[in-house]
Design a protein that fits this description.
Helix content: 10-25%
Distance between the termini: 17 Å
Structural class: alpha+beta
Number of strands: 4
Number of helices: 2
Order of helices and strands: EHEHEE
Strand order of the largest sheet: 1-2-4-3
Largest sheet: 4 strands, mixed
Strand content: 25-35%
């Protein structure tokens, strides 16, 4: 789910950066999925990767994660991943950082 996103930081979300650039497949996917196993409430994973991870999007959506991908000026991609808070309407609490 490519959820609505707000860049305002209310101090409610903690971000972990995972740089998987330069790694050969499937290592980036393995590391991202492992990091997601440790993601808790009000935490977000920011993945830095050399190519857009299209296969990851389906896995995220199937498992209930929201995400936002941004192409950077250095030709890398920044993928922010979080688990929407339970009991909220779509687009309501999906506002990490």
């Amino acid at each position: 789910m490519n959820a609505p996103y707000d860049d305002a930081n209310n101090g409610e979300w903690e971000e972990t950066i995972l740089d998987v650039g330069g790694l050969a497949p499937p290592e980036p996917m393995v590391r991202v999925l492992d990091a997601l196993d440790h993601l808790g409430p009000h935490q977000r994973l920011c993945v830095l990767i050399d190519r857009e991870p299209h296969p990851l999007y389906g896995i995220l959506e199937k498992n209930g994660y929201a995400h936002r991908t941004t192409a950077r000026a250095d030709y890398r991609y920044e993928v922010r991943i979080w688990e929407p808070l339970r009991g909220t309407l779509p687009g309501q609490a999906e506002r990490p950082l």
